[in-house]
Amino acid sequence: MQMPSRALSSMQKLTALDFDYNEIVRVEDYSFYGLRLSKLNLKGNRLQGMPEHAFAGLEECMQEIDVSENGLRTFPLMALRKLDHLRILRLSNNRIATFYGDIQLATNNASAAAAAAGAFQLPSLIFLDLSSNQFAEIGDDCFRAFPQLKTLSFYANQIELVQPEAFKSLRELMSLDMSHNRIITLDPKVFGRNKRLQTVDLSHNHIHAIGGVFSDLPQLREVFLSENNILELPADAFTNSTNVDVIYLESNAIGHIDPNVFSTLVNLDHLYLRSNFIPLLPVTLFDKCTKLTSLSLDNNEIQDLEIGMFRKLEHLREVRLHNNRIRRVRKGVFEPLPALQELHIQKNSIEDIEPQAFSTLQSMQHINLQDNQLTVLEDIFAEDNSSLLSVQLEANYLHKVHPRTFRRQRKVQIMWLKDNQLARVERSFFADTAQLGRLYLSDNRIRDVERDTFAGLPLLQFLDLSGNQLRQLRRDYFAPLVALEELNLARNHIEAIEGYAFAKLGNLKSLDLSHNPLVQLSRDVFLDELPLHSLSLANCSLRKLEQHAFRSLTNLNELSLERNQLNPADIQKLDMPNLRRLLLSHNNFSHVGSGGIMAGMFDRLRSLQQLAMANCSLGQIPDLLFAKNTNLVRLDLCNNRLAQMNRNIFSGLNVFKELRLCRNQLAEFPHIALYNLSALESLDLARNQLASIDFFKLSGTLNLRQLVLRDNRITALSGFNAVNLTQLDSVDLSGNLLLSLPANFLRHSINLQRVDLSSNRFLQIPSSALSDVSIPRLSWLNLTGNPINRIYTVKEERYPYLKELYICQTNLSILTSKDFEAFQALQHLHLVNNRITRISPGAFKSLTNLLTLDLSVNELEMLPKERLQGLRLLRSLNISHNTLKDLEEFSADLAEMQTLDLSFNQLDRVSKKTFRHLHGLLELLLMGNRMTVLSNDAFRFLRKLHVLDLRKNYFELVPLEPLKPLETNLRTLKLEENPLHCSCDAQKLWEWLRDHRKWSLAAGSGAGGGLGGLAGLGGRGLGGDSINYLRCEHPTELRGKVFGRMEPQQFCDAPLIPKMAIQDIQPYSVVVSWQSRDHLGLNGFEIVYHATGDGLVPAGSPTDRERDGVRGHDPDRERSQSQSQSQSQNQNQNQNQNRNRNREHEQRERERERERERDRERFPIATDEVSACTDMVFHIILYPDYFRNRFYISEYLDYM
């Protein structure tokens, strides 16, 4: 489709044109000529380019253009270049990778294109959206054509490199979004020209350092840096950006914070630092952030809180410190904090909270202390004007609560004290908490409740005392709780309940007394009328119910009497006309005669809708048992001894929908009992003794939707011609003895979608019975556990709606090219645990809609590339547990595949071509193979990979080069259970893993999985589970040690600097060289020196013991040996002296340079030249990557 230019030409007054989501493939030159458009929407079409004169005629009026969600490959600058009034341009979701590509195409010359681009401008453009394109690099000054731009989005591109001068022309820029890219480094001055910048979003990148990046930006308000790999917060990260309001730093790898990093952020309001590796907080860190209101430090490694660290935060309302390692809370830490409303310090290791620790927090409304190790709770809260509303103290070890702990806490509404070790509840606990509405005391050791304990709780609505050791309930326990609506007393040791124990609870709606040894229930327990809706007496050892025990419970809807020792006569005493749900399972109703189950047993329960009598030892059901229960909807009779069902059992049940008869002894289908149950929707007859089924006998169940017949002895099915089960949706015939299906199997069940035939005796797919002729809407089929040896069906039979097919645990050995021709709609194919040794060419060629292919646990030795061609929609491929020894290159048709499981094969290598076409792969599992090497380019093209599993291989040295291309997108890396050789060769791996500790958390909430071996580096993700650690296998003395917990000196004792030498000594300089050890990772050096004699010290040079330092930087950290040179000249050197010796000095310099060049050819060196030299002692200080602080080389060079 093309633009209807002629039809538009006469619309002179048209100002806005909307062509979104059409099929436009081309816009011709002059398509809009003569119009006065100010807004044009071409979103969601199929445009791949814009001709140079596409917008000709709109130069004076066009203000907004939307060409997002098309197929543009270059930025259409040539077409836009004359639109001087264009303000808004949306180009998201295209394939644009460069700004000036269309100019280069027009000029056919890159340099000419660059020159021409410099002359083009969109002077009014203020909004540019380039999100979801294919930019990989932001070049120097590439936005010079947009000088007035205020909002710029590069969300979800592929940007790895941002040049230092990238944004230098955007002096008006206010909002920048570069989130969800692959940026690793940013130049400290990258935003140096963008003084009006207000919002920067760099979240979901892989940035390691932010030193200086956000400094000197006076209008900056919001900084989004979550989900990066930032290692530390240096002092200059935000210097002089005084208007910063919000900083998001969650989910990084921050292990160090400089005390001055926030010292200029006087307007900071929200700071989010959750999910990092912060071990401590400098006491002065927040001193200048006096306007801070919200602080998130949860999920870190903080072990202690310094007194006074929050002392200047007068506006702080919320502090989150949960999931750290805090062991104590001292008085003075949370002072004064007059505005604090929420304090979260749960899930730490707090053993002690000093008295009055929170005494100044008068505005605090919510405090969470759960999941700590508190044993005693002192007087910790503010007593005067306390605002406390909720207190969470569950999951501690509390056995004592100070009498004054809750004193004057008059506003508390919710209190959690469950899962502690409290032995008694004293009346002083709740003396002042009159507003308490919900109280959780479950799972303690409470044996008794003092008299009037709850006297001060007139508003309490919920009380949970379950899981304690109460032995009796006295009538005065709950008498004051006149507002109580829910009471849970389950799982105690209650043997007796005094009469009228609940008499005062006039609002009680739910009562749980289950799992107590009551034995019997006297009638006076519920003699007074209670508004109960739900009552549970399950597993109470009840042997008898007195007459009219529940007569006063006229509002009761649900009653559970499961797991007792009641007989049918007790049930007949129930007189509750409003009861709707009755649970009687696991009682013994096997009594014969007057004590057995009897007709009319439920006659007084006229409103009953759900009845459960599973596992009640029922041998028969008398006729008319449910004659008065005409509202019955669901009945569970499973796990009994029923051998037959009488004709009139279910007579009159006109709304009966669900019947469960599983695990009985029925030998014949109970068709007589089911006759005319026209409302029945679900019938479960699993695990009986049925041998044959005549479906004609189901003709009365016209609304049947689900039929379960699994695990019987069925050998034959019949009666399909005359039955019309048109509503049937699911049939389960698994676990029977079927050899075949009749051709007319459920032919009239036009809505049947799921058929389970697993664990029968089929030798092949019963295609004639299951194809579209019989079951036109079949979408799910399970044939697992049959002795199937071939799949092929006749050509005429089709399965047009079949989406999911399971053929597992069969005798299949070969997949032929014809096997799946009839399954063209198939989306999920499971062929697990067969004996497949070969896949014929073209076996899957007809499965063009396939999303999942599972070939695991077979005997495949090879998988040729051709076998998977054509599966363009495939998202998951599982070939684990086969015997693959080599992998061919995966087809380019699998570019959208997301999960590939190759675990537990016999692969010993991966070549650089194997995965090169799998651009969409998110998860690659290679666990349990025999790999010892990987090609350096093995994973280079997997730019979206999130999970890589290399566990249980034979890597003695985990290859680092293949892993580095994954650095920006990887979230979980699993390396454990490889025979790691811990030596100097492993040092680079150690450093790389140290810098990516965040991967250790990827397996889920700080427990297990993730990157084995990082817990010793500060990672908390493995929770002490040593099986997940990457451990040393060699040498013998290090076997079993956790690699990440070691220091480099433990596995590499070679000298850091094996060779050091004096290259040259001159009157005013000395040249020192050294040779560094392989993998040292040297990234800087410093020469500190002092004079030891008078010598030739010129005037103004350092005196004895005075020092000066010169710092250098290694230009190439990847080289194993470092070279660097730095020169330090005395600032006060006599100028006359320099002038006299200048010529001689230059000559010597030339000679020295030639000597240095010869030395560099002999061995790589690092050189530092210091001028104005006399008798000196030099201390050489080096900065390897893996040390935060400097260390001193032991060698001293003395020059006399």
UniProtKB/TrEMBL annotation:
Protein's UniProt keywords contain NAD: no
Transmembrane spans: none
Alphabetically ordered keywords of this record: Cell membrane, Leucine-rich repeat, Membrane, Repeat, Signal, Transmembrane, Transmembrane helix
Protein's recorded name: Chaoptin
Alphabetized Pfam families for the sequence: LRR_6 (PF13516), LRR_8 (PF13855)
Bias type Basic and acidic residues, positions: 1103-1120, 1141-1160
Region (Disordered): 1096-1160
Low complexity bias locations: 1121-1139
Cell location: Cell membrane
